[in-house]
Amino acid sequence: MVVYEQPATLVTASAVKLQGCYVHLNNEDENLKYRISTSESMTIESCQKDCSRYTYRYFGVANKTECYCGDSLRKEQTSNECNYRCPGNLKQICGGSEYMVVYEQPDILPAASAVKLEGCYFHYDDPSSNLRRYKSSNESMTIESCQKDCSVTTDRYFGVISGTHCYCGDLIMSAQLSLKKCPGNPEQICGGFDSMVVYEQLL
User: Fold this and answer.
1) Which element (helix H / strand E) includes 149?
2) Residue ranges in the chain modelled with pLDDT below 50
3) pLDDT tens-digit readout, 71-105
4) Which domain of life is it from (predicted)?
5) Which residues, at least 6 apart from 101, have a Cβ–Cβ distance to it below 8 Å?
């Protein structure tokens, strides 16, 4: 198994792009319909952090305390209805009554060169093995695609085994070497039979 360490994805509010103030009516045809969290100490940064785990393009705050995520904006924006201060930072705006302030996420998925290669590890199909959280299988597997799949978890590491299987987790053990090229990018290594190349997300 090729194992990498995940990077941190939280950015400050100044690093995200403001999209504007949008109508938010809690129906199926809604902007950013996935409510991810609610907090009485909501800030733009805390909502961005919650949504960054799910790789959505946009995040937004409505009614002071509600954080939403999504990939599309349907309703037109308005200019002056988002006037609620964020309870966790009174210098920020956290939407309005039936209105949401929306931001676009920065590019949070790093290239494989931005993650830390931990090495190649044995990977057995048992509870004591490295990186036990199975995420995906892809005949066009790359390090970037596995990293993206694991970025929705809080796991520190991600890895690829047998060229096509992606795992996430926090535990790695003794290193062994058995290499196989990634089918989606022959310049990368995606583990071998019963072995996983492990990367760590950079902190």
Assistant:
1) helix 143-150
2) 1, 8-11, 108-111, 203
3) 878 766 776 789 999 999 999 999 998 889 998 88
4) Eukaryota
5) 18, 20, 21, 22, 60, 61, 62, 82, 93, 94, 95
Collapsed DSSP state (helix, strand, coil) of residue 69: strand
Contacts of 2 by beta carbon, 8 Å cutoff, 6+ apart: 117, 120, 143, 159, 160, 161, 179, 189, 190, 191, 196, 197, 198, 199
Angle, CA of 163, 166 and 172, to the nearest 5°:
100
User: End-to-end distance of the chain based on CA atoms, in angstroms?
Assistant: 22
Question: Which pLDDT belongs to residue 66?
Answer: 93
Domain ranges for the chain, please list them.
1-9+108-203, 17-105
Locate 65 and state its tokens.
């305390």
Q: What is the pLDDT of residue 9?
A: 45
Residue with tokens 């996983």: 196
For the record, the structure tokens of 53 come out as 């785990």
How many residues in total does the chain contain?
Answer: 203
Tell me the backbone φ, ψ of residue 123, rounded to 5 degrees: -135, 110
User: What is the C-alpha separation between 148 and 151, in angstroms, rounded?
Assistant: 5
